[in-house]
Amino acid sequence: MGPDCCCLILAAGKGTRLLPLTRFVPKPLFPLLDIPALEHLVKKIKNSGICQIAINCHHLTREIEKWQKNCQVAHSTTLLYEDVLLDTGGAIKNFFETFGFSHPLLVYNSDIVSNVSISKFYEIFLRRGCDALLCLHDMDRFNKVKLNGPKIQSLSASGKDCLAYTGISIFRPGCFMNAPDGPFPLVPYVEMLIKNGLSIEGCLAEEVVEGGSDNDWSWYDIGTPAEYLKANFHLLERIGKKSLINSAEVDGEVEIESNAIIGTGARIRGRGIIENVVIWPGTEMTIDGTLKNAIITPFARISCTENR
């Protein structure tokens, strides 16, 4: 993909659906397979050939700064601080004003875990020559995007033929050259662009899956405890493992069953069974009995009744 495209990772949200954990760690730094989600995403974007990557931030910015300083793959990224949350539209406009209106911009929500091929997505964008391309999929509870052929007619429709926005898109600079200053949401702004005659198109996620059409599309929004657990367990399955224990101490009569991820430096004592659980790095705990369907951290514990 190279230098003709830049990327903005949206990471400024407060993560209220994951309280109380997001009082201590911003959602983009929640571990996936014991590695911060943001680190997975930056690696993915860099592997696609994109060199200029910015990350907007607002909530717990010092934690993101520490991560950036200590993560080699993140050293070349730029943090865009938002004293006031700019919302998605305002964040995109802020990127263009900061770096110039010169290259297309890939916009990627930091809480999305998917097997989208960024290179394939960008190739389709170039081939179509549209002003913006949104990656779409069928996700019933979010289906609001109505298409007419490849063109998007509405982002706030309803009906059985609608699709959902994945949180992954590409915009040409001209889309935001006359955008308002300050905070504004993306959806009504894009609908205004459509009314003004710009070519805003949709691309089916199945067309841009990593590894070819034989692979199934996968997508998780880690903004809820249940989806966060599902994303971890899906990634665990992808690497062919039933559990993952990274430099952790597990002693006593503790049995590790399937879908157990125990982070670096964690210490687990006692007796019992661990299953369908993500234990964060540095957690120290004693168990007595069965521990299932939970996120365990040094700060708090969240139980999730929704099974995998």
Q: Quickly name the level 1 CATH class of the largest domain.
A: Alpha Beta
Strand order of the largest sheet: 5-4-1-6-11-8-12
How is the biggest beta sheet arranged? Answer: 7 strands, mixed
Q: What is the gyration radius calculated from CA atoms?
A: 20 Å
Overall geometric form: globular
**Low-confidence spans:** none
* Total E-strand runs: 20
In terms of DSSP E residues, the strand content is 25-35%
Summing up helix and strand content along with how strands pair, one would put the structural category as alpha/beta
- CATH homology superfamily name of the largest domain: Spore Coat Polysaccharide Biosynthesis Protein SpsA, Chain A
CATH topology of the largest domain: Spore Coat Polysaccharide Biosynthesis Protein SpsA, Chain A
What order do the SSEs take from the amino end to the carboxyl end, as H and E? EEEHEHEHEEHEEEEHEEHEEEEEEE
CATH architecture classification name of the largest domain? Alpha-Beta Complex
The termini sit apart by 36 Å
